[in-house]
């Protein structure tokens, strides 16, 4: 059953390479592999190995399964790397959530990975936590390794914590802070400076609001960091409560009410007035 599911997923995205269907390039699939406990070393699995004598241990079995059954390049979470260090060759990319950035570089520069394997960092980029602001992601100290094993990073948002009703507010624009951290590590181009970053991220918020979502006024932007939103985008405003950090010049209307467009909404002013008193 599992083999059929994995095969169907790979064929869905890439076409069946054994038929006349279009084959869309290199086949790559993310098989998860985090928090699986001792599944590859269960009593039932050990008994099956002993009975049929085809494999010596669970790492032989997992190595065979990844190479011959999946039939695609594989990305796995690094739990599998830690638990089954000999079953590495079929894995193209290890997505890391158990190591910090220093440990990531140390792993990349070690000889534990097979040739051409790469690493993807996610440990500091989980978006589902309400307590984490955009600045927490921006502050992650991410650097290259000398062997170019580290591909980059990826922000993650888990379905057990987020549904469709809050997805946009939880993901954006905080995820853009992850991109800001990853795309440039040259301080002469991208100064490691919150005041500098917040203006860029505010502009990105406006781009999403107007160009991506078609908003025409501030009253339509609740999913992208309106002041009622507790998922941290509103904290953009806390550095300097100025027009440019909440008003998007792309908007064609001011929305309802007689509020002066040069002033933040009353709710925003009250919110940060209370924060300043803390």
UniProtKB/TrEMBL annotation:
One of its GO terms (biological process) is carbohydrate metabolic process. It is an enzyme of class 3 (hydrolase). Signal peptide: none annotated. Gene3D superfamilies: Glycosidases. GO terms for cellular component: lysosome; membrane. It holds the Pfam family Glyco_hydro_20. GO terms for molecular function: beta-N-acetylhexosaminidase activity. It comes from the Eukaryota. Belongs to the glycosyl hydrolase 20 family. PANTHER family: BETA-HEXOSAMINIDASE, BETA-HEXOSAMINIDASE A. This is beta-N-acetylhexosaminidase. It comes from Perkinsus chesapeaki.
């Amino acid at each position: 059953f599992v083999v059929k599911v994995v095969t169907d997923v790979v064929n869905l995205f890439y076409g069946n390479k054994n038929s006349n269907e279009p084959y869309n390039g290199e086949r790559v699939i993310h098989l998860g592999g985090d928090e699986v406990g001792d599944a590859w070393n269960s009593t039932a699995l050990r008994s099956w190995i002993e009975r049929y004598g085809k494999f010596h241990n669970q790492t032989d079995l997992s190595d065979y399964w990844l190479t011959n059954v999946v039939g695609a390049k594989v990305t796995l979470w690094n739990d599998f790397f830690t638990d089954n260090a000999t079953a590495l060759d079929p894995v193209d990319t290890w997505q890391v959530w158990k190591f910090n950035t220093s440990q990531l570089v140390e792993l990349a520069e070690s000889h534990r990975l097979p040739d051409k394997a790469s690493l993807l960092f996610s440990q500091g980029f989980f978006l589902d936590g309400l307590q984490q602001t955009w600045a927490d992601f921006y502050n992650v100290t991410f650097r290259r390794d000398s062997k170019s094993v580290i591909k980059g990073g990826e922000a993650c948002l888990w379905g057990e914590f987020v549904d469709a009703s809050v997805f946009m507010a939880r993901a954006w624009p905080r995820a853009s802070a992850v991109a800001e951290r990853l795309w440039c590590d040259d301080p002469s181009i991208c100064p490691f400076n919150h005041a500098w970053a917040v203006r860029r991220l505010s502009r990105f918020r406006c781009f999403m609001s107007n160009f991506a979502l078609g908003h025409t006024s501030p009253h339509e932007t609740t999913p992208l960091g309106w002041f009622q939103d507790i998922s941290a985008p509103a904290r953009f405003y806390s550095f300097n409560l100025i027009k440019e950090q909440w008003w998007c010049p792309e908007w064609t209307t001011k929305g309802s009410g007689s509020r002066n467009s040069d002033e933040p909404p009353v709710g925003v002013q009250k919110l940060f007035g209370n924060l300043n008193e803390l």
